[in-house]
């Protein structure tokens, strides 16, 4: 059956859901960078467009931070070996939409793609994201239905999959935890800043015909790398970022 086939594909895609979308976009981004131009060949207008795109990236990251900060342990994590859910999340972001982390991923990724103001790349991103995560979501829903039964079915019927319904909002059960956010989302932040740095350097280099590395972006990239390595060391060697129930 088609449903079973899509779910099986989703199970395989689930294991790579964190890295695969970015990897799928890398060739397209590189090809676009070789021929990118400032928006309407106007550097000032291009910077305004970049601000809009960066706001989208921040919005996507904000959704992930809000969701992760209230999410209990062993649910909605970065587990890759298999699906895990000790509890059914139905409050906070999950009272608005069933897949808030994927919504955040989509919005943030869209912002990164729009930095290159390429209609073809944007269309490719939207289609690739939809095809990939449709299968992941189907596999997750099959797992959650088997795990929680009618409780999941009732929640899913009243909560949209991707377009939030704000009238049904319920405050998060767990208080917000910055420790959980830093532990779970430091890689997301590192990758976002790294992608912006590469795109900005690539765009300026192509348009000006020589390698251009803005000192401000270089400083941001250096700080980003140092923080990434520091947090990774803390996460691996200490329990400073541990939080009860997270």
Write the layout of secondary structure elements.
Blueprint: H1 2-15, H2 20-33, H3 43-69, H4 100-114, H5 119-148, H6 150-158, H7 178-208, H8 215-237
Helix pairs in contact: 1-5, 2-5, 3-4, 3-7, 4-5, 5-6, 7-8
Kindly describe this structure:
By secondary structure, the chain is an all-alpha fold. It has a single domain (2-176), classed as Four Helix Bundle (Hemerythrin (Met), subunit A), CATH 1.20.120.1630. The chain contains eight helices and no strands. It has helices spanning 2-15, 20-33, 43-69, 100-114, 119-148, 150-158, 178-208, 215-237. The longest helix is centred in the C-terminal third of the chain and has 31 residues, at 178-208. The protein starts with a helix and ends in a 9-residue tail after the last helix. 29% of the residues are buried. It is a multi-pass membrane protein. This is Isoprenylcysteine carboxylmethyltransferase family protein.
Q: Specify the biggest β-sheet.
A: none
* Spatial gap, N to C terminus: 38 Å
Give helix % range. 55-70%
CATH architecture tag: Up-down Bundle
What do we call the CATH topology? Answer: Four Helix Bundle (Hemerythrin (Met), subunit A)
Subcellular location: Endomembrane system
Protein name: Isoprenylcysteine carboxylmethyltransferase family protein
Main location: membrane
Organism: Alloalcanivorax xenomutans
């Amino acid at each position: 059956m088609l449903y079973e086939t899509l779910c099986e594909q989703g199970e395989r895609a689930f294991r790579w859901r964190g890295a695969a979308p970015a990897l799928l976009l890398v060739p397209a981004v590189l090809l676009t960078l070789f021929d990118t131009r400032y928006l309407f060949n106007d550097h000032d207008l291009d910077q305004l467009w970049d601000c809009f795109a960066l706001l989208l990236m921040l919005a996507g990251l904000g959704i992930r931070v809000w969701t992760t900060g209230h999410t209990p342990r062993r649910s909605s994590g970065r587990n890759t070996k298999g699906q895990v859910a000790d509890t059914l999340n139905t409050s906070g972001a999950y009272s608005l939409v069933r897949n808030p982390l994927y919504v955040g991923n989509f919005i943030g990724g869209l912002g990164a793609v729009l930095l290159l103001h390429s209609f073809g790349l944007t269309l490719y991103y939207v289609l690739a994201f939809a095809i990939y995560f449709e299968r992941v979501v189907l596999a997750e829903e099959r797992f959650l239905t088997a795990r929680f039964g009618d409780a999941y079915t009732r929640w899913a019927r009243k909560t949209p999959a991707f377009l939030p319904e704000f009238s049904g909002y319920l405050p998060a059960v767990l208080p917000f935890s910055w420790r959980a956010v830093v532990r779970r989302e430091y890689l997301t932040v590192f990758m976002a800043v790294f992608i912006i740095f590469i795109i900005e350097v690539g765009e300026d280099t192509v348009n000006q015909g020589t390698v251009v590395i803005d000192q401000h972006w270089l400083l941001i990239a250096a700080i980003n790398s140092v923080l990434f390595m520091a947090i990774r060391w803390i996460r691996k060697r200490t329990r400073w970022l541990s939080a009860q129930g997270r």
